[in-house]
Amino acid sequence: MLSYHNDPLIKDKYLARVQAHAAADELIHGVYWENGKGCAVGCTVHSDSHAAYEAELGIPRILARLEDGIFEGLANGRSKQWPEQFLAAIKVGRDLSLIWPRFAVWLLTDKWYGVLQHAKTQKAKIAIQNVADAYQSVVEGQKKEIDWYKLRSDAAAYAAAAADAVAAYAAADAAYAAYAAADDAAAYAAYAAYAAADAVAAYAAADAAYAARFSKRQEHREAQADKLLELLRSA
Asked: Which of 3, 9, 12, 128 has its CA 20 to 30 A from that of 110?
């Protein structure tokens, strides 16, 4: 599958669509598509179907879910620009299949925003790193069998401890994304892996005031948006 089905006219069509919705102030949080208004996904495909990104735009549905979740977490100013930024960053005729694995590695291991830094036990850290390593092997094109189900189970096992729950579940969901992404309903778990960074931010600031937690949440969303754009532009 190639982005925009290798047709510049498709990119032009959907870019113009989201630009028009932004100009008309029709991009809103919390609604997929209703009465001519909606979220990033709704204003792109005029429905709530992430799978439509594959059929209509040649963009993997897991990236539609990332775009969707990031939009919902961004502040109003950036969120209104986000659908255009997302589509504009994708060049015509590119294979985007490695964007999610690269994003998952960053999400789990980044020095500033990665999930790994919030794990409290060595076993949980190992389980999370194993998921990241598996994704890195996909990025590098290594020909080896990956037991995503076991990776997910190992990470989830350490989520029972409250201190590691957020970080371990994030890794488990990331592994499950690879294990079950072929199923659109099950692939929702992939969205949880990215969304876990929001929970991580809240966990890290658990004793702070609500305003501080909200600020941290915004910081994570901005970082996720910037990282995804960077990866899309490099494809």
From this structure: 3
